[in-house]
């Protein structure tokens, strides 16, 4: 039994090294591409954790999928009012499903149900105040 344990401990680092080498080797069918998040332009589903709370209940940390990213935006001056032509898109929900959880330690008069969206698909699009917090004026 101790021999098997020793063998598995030795093979662990070797397996990790082999998988890493295969994934980083140019031309590998399972090549991993590193994404520079500072330069990423686009919209993607990404894991997100937040603290769900409401008055009269305790908080609950929830990990869900949310939309994240940057979309191409541009503005150019024009001769006629409003003197600017703009193309502004935001990373926003395209498809979601709602999940309801029970918050802990709620007072008897408070409904413990808390509903939040889970992103299934995200796209660059016009900001919709029904699903996204939008800045409408500066």
How are the SSEs ordered, and which strands pair?
Blueprint: H1 2-24, E1 42-52, E2 60-70, E3 74-77, E4 84-87, E5 90-102, E6 113-125
Antiparallel strand pairs: 1-2, 3-4, 5-6
How does this structure look, described?
- With 138 residues, this protein is an alpha+beta fold.
- It is 17% helix and 41% strand.
- It has one helix at residues 2-24, and strands at residues 42-52, 60-70, 74-77, 84-87, 90-102, 113-125.
- The strands form three sheets. A two-stranded antiparallel ribbon has the order 1-2. The chain has a two-stranded antiparallel ribbon with strand order 3-4.
- The longest helix has 23 residues, at 2-24.
- The protein starts with a helix and ends in a 13-residue tail after the last strand.
Key terms for this structure?
6 strands; disordered N terminus; alpha+beta; single chain; about 140 residues; 1 helix; about 15% helix
* Radius of gyration (Å): 24 Å
Total beta strands: 6
Largest sheet: 2 strands, antiparallel
Taking the alpha carbons of the first and last residues, their distance comes to 69 Å
How many distinct helices?
1
Proportion of helical residues: 10-25%
Dominant shape: elongated
- Output the strand order for the largest sheet: 1-2
Mean pLDDT: 76
Helix/strand-derived class? alpha+beta
Could you write a compact summary of the structure shown?
The chain is an alpha+beta fold and 138 residues long.
